């Protein structure tokens, strides 16, 4: 049975991760909110930083969780890091 060498496996893994990242379409505001979630900020902190209401933040967080298919903020932050959804 044929096998792949380690470089081929790494290349395929990287390509798969990049493909997944491009499939998730976030708005600029959602990316801003997500970056602050990754930093551990609360909705109140995010609202103050972005000069929007906590209700608007809650709505953005809900949209982000749905788009990432994440059940909570922690999972969204982990997925963001794993899939490199935000620029470094």
What can you see in these coordinates?
It is a single chain. Helix 2 packs across helix 4 (about 55-70) and helix 2 packs across helix 5 (about 75-85). The protein has a single domain, classed as Winged helix-like DNA-binding domain superfamily/Winged helix DNA-binding domain (Arc Repressor Mutant, subunit A). With about 90 residues, the protein is mostly helical. The protein has 5 helices and no strands. The termini are far apart.
Largest sheet: none
- Secondary-structure element order, N to C: HHHHH
Report mean pLDDT, rounded to a whole number: 87
The helix tally amounts to 5
Count of DSSP strands: 0
**What's the CATH H-level superfamily name?**
Winged helix-like DNA-binding domain superfamily/Winged helix DNA-binding domain
Based on secondary structure, the structural category is: mainly alpha
Distance between the termini: 40 Å
Q: DSSP strand (E) fraction? A: under 5%
CATH class: Mainly Alpha
Kindly provide the radius of gyration, computed on alpha-carbon positions and rounded to a whole number of angstroms: 16 Å
How many domains make up the coordinates? 1
Shape: elongated
The name CATH uses for the topology is Arc Repressor Mutant, subunit A
Task: Please supply descriptive tags for the structure shown above.
mainly alpha; Arc Repressor Mutant, subunit A; 72% helix; single chain; 88 residues
